[in-house]
Amino acid sequence: MPKEKYDPPDPRRMYTIMSSEEAANGKKSYWAELEISGEIFSKLFYRQPPPPPKPSKLITFCVVMWQEFRTIEVETEQYYSFFLPELKEQGYDGFFSPKSRARTMSESDRKHVDGCAIFFKTEKFSAVQKHTVEFNQLAMANSEGSEAMLNRVMTKDNIGVAVLLEVRKEMLEISSGKSLHGLDKQLLLVANAHMHWDPEYSDVKLVQTMMFLSEVKNIVDKATRSFKLSTSGETSAIPLVLCADLNSLPDSGVVEYLSSGGVDCTHKDFKELRYSDSLTKFNCNGKSSTSNGRITHGFKLKSAYENGLMPYTNYTFDFKGVIDYIFYSKPHLNVLGILGPLDPHWLVENNVSGCPHPHIPSDHFSLYAQLELLLPSVPSQVNGLHLPARR
Fold this sequence. Notes:
Its cofactor is Mg(2+). Helix content is about 25%, strand content about 25%.
């Protein structure tokens, strides 16, 4: 049996609904709550609801076309018994994959293994491909004799998932105002990952992120060839939205790698461990490419949350910081709006010093972004019709 079943409960997660005297007198209570971690949305019901948390800043713009999908971390049983059926009623479909350890566990224990999920609105998108990326398998296959890769990275069973979506033709026609027969498919890749949590393993987080971006690039390149999509210079024909619990702060090598396009093989987060030979396989142009001692990924990624708008995405009693992110690729995508942080005055007034809390079921706060997909320039004639270039 897992060790945690014998551990005493964390007192910070124990909530008193009513006193023993009230219970003895027959008082009834109603307390429904689902506690999970990750970028989530959830419903809580209380007998006497508290004042709702208020975003201190909500930026909104006129939406031309915005991507309706959600990425979360969730347990296997929660996905199949709650999230998938609930969201299907709202017009979503989804893809979920548990961590690698699930394959070695009994059926009863497997349902409690967490993993990553992606949901998408079926009236706007159809799923073309679904992918699971297992970091321990990649570490084993690409160790190149690196003991650090085998002993530190391979032993962590974190995963990432990716769904290649096609924008439905009717959505494109609504946006452009014209019939678009004969044009390329408009694809979008949505990726979600959960990196290792321990601050002492900054090297593992960075290697896992490199592995994931390398696999994402492989997915994009193969799909571009398979669907014979036209490309413009170094710009990919398939935009990318990357959502992740990176377990890494904004000044980390992980965020530097994603934001700047690469990181030096000698970065301090590698802890002077021998990784360099094994990392070259994850370079954007392959092992034979020269990148002046840097590992690069080839995407032009931008964070949806910039300039320190979110003071923290993880809010616990003893840690508060930004470790969750939404990145998107330029120039195909633009941010139209984002949900800002919870009002700090609300947290103080309600004595919320750490989460999970009766008012807030997760220690991770939700990130939410509205994204605009810029459609490619439409040829002047399609099937004899003169069409203007539209967004």
